[in-house]
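Async update (no meeting this week)

Hi team, since we skipped the sync, here's where things stand on the single-chain job. The sequence we agreed to prioritize is pasted below, unchanged from the tracker. I ran it this morning and attached the output directly underneath so nobody has to dig for it. Comments welcome in thread, and please keep replies under the output.
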Amino acid sequence: MLRPMSSPERDPPTYNPRMHRGGKLSFRGRVQDGDGDPGEFLVFGGQDPPTLRDLAGSQWRGIEVEIGPGKGAFVLAATAARPDVFVLGIEAAPGYASLAATKLAQSGRDNGRFLVDNGKLYLQDRVEPGALDAVHVYFPDPWPKRRHRGRRLFTDDVPAVLARALRPGGCLYFASDNAAYAGQVARVMGSAADFRRDEDEEARALAAGPGHAFTPTNFERKYVAEGRTIRRFAFRRVGR
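Output:
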């Protein structure tokens, strides 16, 4: 178990090239950190982040990652719904990560953490092969301008990153209100030899309720209230 960080350790570096490796990240606007102390529930990765094994340990039935958890609604619901599963939220915006980690600390649950780091890079160099049961990506920045689309998470190289991190049978869960980006994800993941779309799993996970997959997130609540169409995919890792 990592020890709680002292106040100076919780101050993020002003610049960390790791956060921008592979393309500029989308940083959501900073929000009020909120009252309370996130303690060990908030980890700043810095230039040498702790490994997944360091953060999670080995006592859990399963380990899952959410990339871009924002204010933490899904991670908070998942740690409550499935106390035997460890859920790591990897968030680029320190303010959001701090707010979410404080809520998790106040919940009294110990089966989750929030890490400030580059989510894609973390899967590549801090997660052992086959260590994850699921990766969740909900409402990522669509980078709608044509010249910015290379900054999206789901570029052509990401299936290999996900295939390495997920165990056989594990799933990528994705949701977006952006039709163009959802179409890109369907193409990139649907053409990957290591994955197949599992529509039965999409229905099962959504019916299972909050904290299993897809729901809840703050963006989902907002977009459903606005009447937007939400596209949800589950892609299962196949092969050995």
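Quick observations from my side:
The radius of gyration is 17 Å.
DSSP finds eight helices and eight strands in the chain.
Reply here if anything looks off.
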